[in-house]
Amino acid sequence: MKITAALAVAPHSDFSVETVDLGAPQANEVLVRIAGVGLCHTDLVFRDQFVPLPLPAVLGHEGAGVVEAVGSAVTDLVPGDTVVLGFSSCGHCPRCAEHLPSYCREFVPRNYAGARPDGTSPISRDGSAVTAVFFGQSSFASHAIADRRNVVKVAAGDDLAIMGPLGCGLQTGAGAVLRSLDCPSGSTLAVFGGGPVGLAAVMAARYRGCSRIILVEPVAARRALGVELGATDVIDPGEGDVAAAIRALLPDGVDFAVESSGRVAVMETALASLASRGALGLVGVPPRAEDALAINIAGMITFGHRVIGIIEGDSDLQGFIPELVALYRAGHFPFDRLIKTYPLADINAAVAAQHRGECVKAVLIP
Ligand code: CXF
Ligand code: ZN
């Protein structure tokens, strides 16, 4: 079938919105008409060749939409079902068996390789294969094909179009707090970076009943939004020593920190802000694949600090995304406050607006 897709054609360059061809779903796959797709920093770093990904490529990994067709082996979804798309996983390795599919043995080939595990791509242009299957979906498009395992049925209505970010950025921030770090009620937390991931962490921490939720974020409007969403304190890192500012609020430091900016200097500050036995969760991706964090070993041992890498908030997709939808419906996870919608055709304007900080999370509507 003919679909409309935004193609990444060159690093650091505009997307090109074109008509391309989409094949039929394989036995284990689902064809989804995309109602909306979030724009994530990760889409841009892959366009910009953080790791080599052949271009042109259809990126997009925060899609939500309506099932249009299912492959012959899919028995538990039907056309008309409303779904959120997440990342792909194999379903048969040790971590998948533990319901931690974001640590799947096949995470990298299934999400970054640009093709199905059998090497084929569902998308072509003028008869030539286009890099697709990005995070098992490639949803910067009117339609996407995904594996059954990364399609999550949700109860949605008019708001289906904004639900795609639950499949990446929002579950990353919320899951860091609720699952990976499992911050107890009454614990203290600092969140570094007030983008979609950081603000999802703030909302989750309020829901969990954290006693102090300190948001460190340079943009005033994002700090103000953070306070509305649950931050008890905000710090502008432009005003000086952030670790000292945190210790002025909590002399022992924080029990937990979530680092969502991806900047090494911020990770060092986060580490310096921890109380003894404190844990730092790293979710922000640094600009270069080789970036590294130096850790003082004596300090790490003396204070029992823990540094934990977190991908996709340890989400199990099928359980956690419906849980987040339920929290949203109950008013505990008002992620709609972060979102601004743009037509998919205006994807380049949306990238520029998000870059200028005019919106926290852009969602593109095909
Ligand atoms: C990404 C972050 C980099 C590792 C894979 C998952 N999260 C989504 O954008
Ligand atoms: Zn993402």
UniProtKB/TrEMBL annotation:
Residues 10-364 form the Enoyl reductase (ER) domain. Transmembrane segments: none annotated. The keyword Zinc applies. InterPro entries: ADH-like_C, ADH-like_N, ADH_Zn_CS, ER, GroES-like_sf, NAD(P)-bd_dom_sf. One of its GO terms (molecular function) is aryl-alcohol dehydrogenase (NAD+) activity. PROSITE patterns: ADH_ZINC. Its cofactor is Zn(2+). Keywords: Metal-binding, Oxidoreductase, Zinc. Its EC number is 1.1.1.90. Belongs to the zinc-containing alcohol dehydrogenase family. This is Aryl-alcohol dehydrogenase. The lineage of its organism: Bacteria, Pseudomonadati, Pseudomonadota, Alphaproteobacteria, Sphingomonadales.
